[in-house]
Each structure stands twice: as structure tokens, then as C-alpha cells.
Amino acid sequence: MDNKVNYLLRLGDNAMVLSQRLAELCGKGPALEEDMALSNVSLDLLGQTRMWYSYAAELEGKDRDEDKIAFLRDAHDYKNVILVEQPNGNYGMTLMRQFFFDTWHYFLIGALTKASDTRIAEIAEKSLKEVTYHLRRSGDLVVRLGDGTDLSRQLMQSAADELWMYSGEVFIYDEVDEAMAAAGIAPPAATLREQWLAHVSDIFGEATLTMPPADAWMQRGGKQGRHSEHLGYLLAEMQFLQRAYPGSEW
Amino acid sequence: MSKEWPLWEVFIRSQHGLAHKHVGSLHAPDAAMAINNARDVYTRRNEGVSIWVVRAADIVSSAPSDKGPLFEPSNSKVYRHPTFFPMPEEVKNL
What we know:
The structure holds 2 protein chains of 2 kinds. By secondary structure, chain A is mainly alpha-helical.
């Protein structure tokens, strides 16, 4: 597969899978206001997914459109990082997963606005305002709940400890990522990681949370299609209709 | 402290409107989150360019039972409307 198509699918799959996870909470949020905020983020990510998939489909030039890419691929063809497929868990887990993702996403999308590929730069430009708000929101909530009650701090700390090993995969570049970096599209992994660590450290400081060690062992494999057991269930639910009634339309 | 978040009234200034208009209410623990929540709940369809939030408890209102003494006296005072002045033809858009 062409490196750029592969990279676009990775971008799309990260947004797609996290969007689906957040959509699971629609109507079940802890408060009406939170429920709507999460659904808004989910929809923002879905919109971004469509742009990445559409561009990938165009470049690929095969008989695949955004819908086929989303609904007719199995888990081993999905290229999202393992972080985003992790279950919602308690609300602390949901928020911490979001905060780790948003921080990376914000710096990545910011860098992609300067990509040598104008179409990618345009999609990034369009997404940046959404992503900026996502990060502001999830950072704010991590601070409030981290520096909140004893119980909320404890839940946020254990969410951070539990999810930490999934946070580094985005910075482990393989030949696809390196090719994109060399082509002036993806930012260098080291820069991205430095920005991520600095921001997470700031927010954790404010939230009075302990940041796990930066050099901890990190899970990997999602980008290459090796996922945790959770992704299969997520896709089974998401793809059910198209699998059971192929080609059915809204 | 009460476990229930306090109620806030939300006012939005629309794209073309000049004044903020009351659009509804929401719950939030403090002002900053009330603004965030208002953005998420009340501006999803591109409704606004500016948000005000006010604690519902801080709004002082007239009592419904005062309706008679407060508002009815002005019913019969049509001379307070500026409709009795002849306007010159040349004045437009008044």
C-alpha cells in the first residue's frame, strides 16, 4: 500500500475509532451538558474521519469510498493506535484517554497545517479549531477532577497509570511515518513527543497528579493492525448493519 | 456544599443580532464551565458569536402578582407612544 494512503488511513482510523467510542456514551453521559459535549467531540472526529478517508480513497483510485473504508474492513486492516480503542471505563478513564489523545492530536494537526501536501494542509486547517477546543476542554476537566475531591483525584490518577502504556505508540514511527516525515508531511516524532510531554506535565502539575515515567515501556502494534481484543467488538457493533444488509442506505 | 450544580441562565448574541438573547439554562459548577457547557449545548448549530452566563439565583425578577400595579397603568396611556407627530415626507426609514 502506498505510504500516503496508509498514513491517511491511520489518521482516519484514529478519529473513527475514538468517535465510535465516544458515541457509545451518547445519552449516557454523567450530566446532560457533558453528554452533549462528548457527542460534539464524537461528531467533530467523525467529520475529520470522512475527510481523511475520502482523500485516501481518491489517492488509492480503487473501488472504495469512505463508507466502504469504514464499514468493510476487519480489525487487522484498521490502523488506529491501541489507545483509542480502549473501553470507556469509568468517566475518569474516558477523560484521560481523551486528554492523552487530544494533546497529541492538537500538536499533530497544528504541524499538518504546514504539510507539503496542500490537501492534507487544508484538512488540518479545517480541523485545527475543533481540535483546539477538544484539548482545552479535556485539559480543563483533568485539572478540575485531578485537583478535586479525594475520590476524583484517585480515579484520575489510576486512569493515568492504567492508560499511560498506550500513550506512546503515536511517537513510535515505522517506515510509513518516517516516509511521511521525509516528505515534509508528518512532523518528526521527537518534536511531537517533546511537545506532548511538556503539555501533559503542565496539566498534571496543575491537576496535582503524578505523571508516570516518560521512559516507561509502551504498547505498540495498532498502526500495523495488531490490536487489543477490544477493537473487534467495537467494529462488530459499528459495522453490523452494513455486514448484515450490504449496501443498504440511510 | 450541595451536590447539585447551580443553575445558570444563558444568553447568546447571534451572528446578526445586536443584543444577547436569553436561550435557556444549564447546570455547571462554576462560571468557566458554564461558558463551556453553553457553547456545547446552545451553539451547536452556529447560533452565536458571544455568550453570557448568569447565575439564575442572581437574577432579580418582578413578582407575577405585581402584574396589575406594575404594568396595567400604562395600558390606557396611548399618548406615550410617539405616533401623534406628523412626519415630513422626506424622512424615510423611521
